[in-house]
Sequence to fold (354 residues):
Amino acid sequence: MESLLEELYKTDLHVEKYHQRKAFLEEKSYQINGITHSGKTKLVKNYLLSLKKNSYLYIDCHDIRIDIIDLNRTLMDFCSKNTIDVIVLDNYIESINLFTISQLIICSQKHYEIDFLESIWLYPLDYEEFLAYEHKYDSSALNHFFKLGGFPSIHKVNADERTLFIQKILQYTLTEIEFDILCFCAKMMSQKVSPYTIYERLKLTKKISKDKLYKLYEELLLKRYIHEVQKINKPKAIKKVYLCDISLKSALTIDKHFGRLFENMVYLELLKSNIECFYDDGIDFYIPSKDELIMCIPFADDRALFKKIEQIEFFIFTQQIKKVTIITMNREGNISHPFSKVEMIPFDIWALGD
Fold:
């Protein structure tokens, strides 16, 4: 095992054209979590390349040459002997022993309760991060975002290979049933759906118990491949489900519904800004901390907008909503309302705002 560690220690790391993310690393110990291809490896390698070559050791725990028993027996002594200050355990496996060192960084899809590690969740690119990959920022940038989604690596994949690329990385990472659950959630994007509904559908073609499906559904939530939004003041009501990235909709299903895709995209921007939100009948997102409603209406004429506002007036009045924000594709302006400020704003302006 020591010879393998020596090889890894001497190997030069390489990062091809790194684009800055909103997440960044300092001289602390971290646990970096995120779905597959969210950019965890590139983030840590870019950080390591800012350090002295002989001060760190990068280990990908998926390397089949690694014997975990031998690694646990030799790693600490190897680091001490070579005066290594920083260790990165990428694709961390729980059976690998952790020990005290100046800086420890582990990367994993699954979150572990490790008190001395600061936690970072790395999501696929949000719209602002996506723009760093664009050669120029113009009206075509948002259309590119709809087509490509937020996987950083998708920019290097040919257009005719992107769908299969996403399918393959998900099939490699997830179990067969997890993948089937994700495919069903892609069909139900931005809609109310329960694990029981998924079980009822999948049991028609798969041999699986309800308990196992519920457990795997929870795993997908914990690893943040899917997200749920609760109905306001009704925790037992069926939740709305959203995908970790909008590209999964077209990659996993032939169903087309731009409005639901648009709503999922808005939700992800709220998620990445750590804004807690809820839904209600006729209301996409309610943000209690801001007394604000978010409505996702990419295309609508004035008549349809006024009708929509009328339908939620009771909620606006009873919850004392201060602001209603209508996210659109390109419309901008204000609507007169006696109880609340109603503003229409294009997605790209809204997403790049404070």
About this structure: Residues 275-354 form one domain.
